[in-house]
Amino acid sequence: MRRNPLSTYAYHSFGVLQFLSVVALALIGVGDKTDDKFLQSANGVIRESLLFLKSIDPYYRLVFPILIAVLEGVRKLMGPPWAREFIHSFLDGIQSMVFTDRKSSELHHHRVTLFRRVPARVCFTRKWYADWFTPWLVPFSRSAHTTQRARTSFRVPDSGDDAEGIAGATWNCKNIISIDSLPDLAINEPSPSQIHEYAEKKRVT
């Protein structure tokens, strides 16, 4: 969830490639608009450059606009690195305020996770043919620095009663949901009734 240095490098690299593609497309346009009279009056270097631009295969005049559009879409999907870092810092602040009496314990036991809704998700479930085209809540950012590779997701179909997890219930009501008296499953051997009660209260049965 938290952006790694490689994705940050890729985001900026795609931006540079997009800029170069725009410049190349503009230069090709200059070559197309240059008339023969100007070519005859131009000096050697400028003339040779314009002749080269005019000789570029028309195929590239289609490639560059497509490349620019694809790169723009990929960068929008990735999001700017500063925005994700800001969100992560914001979640860290919420974690510090909410769990004030647990600062000495492991942070990943008291984490704050921000989910985002996606219209579809590739998954392998018993009803994968339906779940692929069902909206899901997937982790976008999480507080602290551990458990950053979590892939826990919750179905949020159009039927609100079928939404999964506390995340799904919160999505449905657009309000704060609080759950008290959850069974402690950290004990050595929780009973089946405790597991069932925990799952039922967390809406993951």
Structural account:
- The chain has 205 residues and is mostly helical.
- It has eight helices and three strands.
- The protein has helices at 5-33, 36-41, 44-54, 58-78, 81-98, 128-131, 165-173, 192-201; strands spanning 113-118, 136-142, 154-155.
- A three-stranded antiparallel sheet has the order 1-2-3.
- Helix 1 packs across helix 3 (44-54) and helix 1 (5-33) packs antiparallel against helix 4 (58-78).
- The chain is elongated and about 90 Å long.
Bulk shape: elongated
How many beta-strand runs?
3
Spatial strand sequence of the major β-sheet: 1-2-3
| Biggest sheet features | 3 strands, antiparallel
Distance between the termini: 26 Å
Proportion of helical residues:
40-55%
% residues in beta strands: 5-15%
List the total number of helices. 8
* Oligomeric state, counting identical vs distinct chains: single chain
Structural class: mainly alpha
- The overall pLDDT, averaged over residues, is 81
Order of helices and strands: HHHHHEHEEHH
Contiguous runs where pLDDT drops below 50 for at least 5 residues: none
Compute the CA-based radius of gyration.
Answer: 27 Å
> What count of domains describes the coordinates?
2
